[in-house]
Amino acid sequence: MASLRRINQDDLRNHNLSVVIDTLLRNIEPMSRAELAKATGLTKATMSLLVPILIDAGVVREGDPVAAAAFGRPSTPLAIAGGVLCGVGMQVNTDGYGTTVVDLDGSTIAGEWVERPMGGSDPAEVFAALDELVARHEREVTARGWRVAGAGLALPGLVTDDMRLLTARNLGWADLDLRRFDVVARLDARGGNEANMAALAQIPGYATQRRRKGIVGPGDSFLYVSADIGIGGAYVRDGRLVTGDRGFAGEIGHVSLSLDGPRCSCGRLGCLEAYVGRRALVERAGLAHGEEAVRIESFEALAQLLRAGESRAVACADEAVRVLSSIVASAVNMLDVGTVLLGGLWERFGSGFTERIEREANAQLLGRPAVQVRVRMPEVGGHPALRGAAKLGLRRFIDDPLGFVGGAEG
Ligand SMILES: [Zn+2]
């Protein structure tokens, strides 16, 4: 991801604008020019050159001046403005496909999800349908005055930085050059694994306005584990997604817990996914097998039996707690990360589930009792990968503001 950059006046201005926007996005409250200067380390003189560029472009607005407490001039609060720039998120998952359009201010302005079992689907046909869906919402938001800053695409598989899908076993897709699909080329979309995108959605102030204090802050580190048929993982260090050499670091679903465990879809034995993926849970509870176990209704049945205290379902949840607490402990030992977010279908297991995993994981940590891990459900649910993909699209603006706003003077 690293790139060599020429440093000239425009680059410097672009960098400074990027820092100012980033700072405003991460701050819950509006900030005065003086507060921005202090937070960014830029001079007040530089700030008075940069801020008008953002105000003229409509991405920052001035609030009513606030009188200074003791002496000095009243200060004018600056805040990120909505209604100008948006990011388009796209996702193909095992249970359907969809799009969402997110404003820089964090509000969702359009979107749609199409429920459909996607295993064994034809990529060309799916991307054509996605293109049609996205184009409709794109036309709608641009007619209402927004400009699309960029787009992101979330897929349930290994996506490289140069937009190749190496494999998505639960879709039956392999070795696809994603740029050959019109919707990807047209929007110059950046792709990624769904867990990576869902993790981006959890980082407050990453490309959209932070609204409140939550489980994690903008510069925090955490491990995100997402669960559907497959188990995905993403590692965020100091507010940045760690993507690895090729773009798909964090595949915790294929960490093996047992050399003679159940066979995983990847061919190995005892992978996390083979114990606690959606299909695996249903099969291990003896509720259904094969294609029947993949159906979302089969998992709903399991969740219902669990609520009713049915013994096979309870044993299955107990095993999931054992398996997940072991993998959380291993991950914390390896990454030294203080927070683990468990996203996806596990929210159906009730709030006590994460508490049990936290307790059992903490009892296994190498550095216990000094080292402790928090295990929580993520705050952004629904289709978090879709929202993260939209944020990745918006990030284009934050990384290169001059590509979108004026600033003609050298
Ligand atoms: Zn595996």
UniProtKB/TrEMBL annotation:
Gene3D superfamilies: 3.30.420.40, Winged helix-like DNA-binding domain superfamily/Winged helix DNA-binding domain. Pfam families: ROK (PF00480). It comes from the Bacteria. Coiled coil: none annotated. This is ROK family transcriptional regulator. InterPro entries: ATPase_NBD, ROK, WH-like_DNA-bd_sf, WH_DNA-bd_sf. Belongs to the ROK (NagC/XylR) family.
